[in-house]
Amino acid sequence: MSGSSTGSARVAAAPLTIFATPKPFEGHIGVIQRNAIGSWTRLNPRPEVILFGMESGTAEVSAQFGLRHIPNVKCNEWGTPLVSDLFARAEALTTGPALCYVNSDIILLDDFMEAITRIRSWGDQFLMVGRRTDVDIKGAIDFERADWAKRVRAQAKQEGRRQIARSIDYFAFSRGLYPAMPPLAIGRFWWDNWLLWKARWLGVKVIDASKVVLVVHQNHDYSHTTYGPTKEEMMASEECIRNARLTCEANPADYDEGFFWRYAYTIDDATFRLTPSGIGSNPGHLWKQFKRYTSRPLGIAKLLKKRVLRAQSARDNNDVTAGAPR
Q: How far apart are CA 169 and CA 229, in angstroms?
């Protein structure tokens, strides 16, 4: 389906809507994105899948897999799609109870849909995240083989490397969870940490599904960006610095004062864990918060000083008000 024919229509309700904004379908990136998207279309029950953007090959891949394609997306001045527009439009175009943004190099298997079903039956409002497993997949997956998923799972278990909690590649969430967002740039760091922080700030149940969901990330370099092939080059860019600033929406002064780390939440900040036996609390999120602050003693001192000065200012204002003539 192309955006020109269905861009203004609402799709039929599906138990889950997966949406993504692929990179150009060129070279190795093109191969692994086709692998990822092919895996999404073979989930059971099949989700609705929406591809956003006008990168080369997106329209053709959408047509090949029978997906919804929305070509026009709001971008920043560097041409990077905005998270706020992607999430808002995905909700506006669908009616199902749950949505999931997934990076376009991520292979999903049926345990993913099973986890969504279990969590939806447990709570109305939620955010599900989980750790990925990095795997070197060079060629196209043969989806005609009945055992393709079993082969991917075996390779991931034998050769894969479980990533740290800072690497967050999917966000499955209940409809209406994110009513408004700052104009964060997709794929330019910190936007994913903000999504976790915002859910926690809203008091929503955040579930870590790492113990039951195998999420396969196909390794690649960063040569598709204009910043160079390494993460370090991208993180030093003005675009990434802006994202870091925007994560401080609760207090914009926090970035200049060196406090933006307060919003850099990770999978370890999940308040619950999904396990084979059920959903239970995750006391580890308390330890994560403790480490976040105690590892920055100078930052703690600055925060305490800031609060003392704010309290003193409030008392002075109250004294002035109380002493004013009536």
A: 19
**What's the rounded Cα separation, in Å, for the pair 186 and 177?**
18
Indicate the pTM of the whole model.
0.86
Q: Residue 197's Cα: distance from chain center in Å?
A: 11
Helix, strand and coil content of the chain, in percent to the nearest 5, comes to: 40, 15, 40
Q: What is the pLDDT of residues 104-116, one digit of tens each?
A: 999 999 999 999 9
- Give the whole-number percent of the chain exceeding pLDDT 90: 72
d(CA 260, CA 158): 38
Can you spell out the DSSP letters for 99-110?
A: EEEE-TTEE--H
Q: Which residue has the higher pLDDT, 206 or 224?
A: 206
DSSP-based three-state secondary structure for 157: helix
Residue 163 has which token pair?
């990533």
Nearest CA to 221 out of 207, 213, 205, 232 is that of: 232
In CATH, what class is 3-282?
A: alpha beta
Q: How confident is the model at residue 316 (pLDDT cuts 50, 70, 90)?
A: low
* Interatomic CA distance for residues 115 and 109, integer angstroms: 11
CB-CB neighbours of 261 under 10 Å? 15
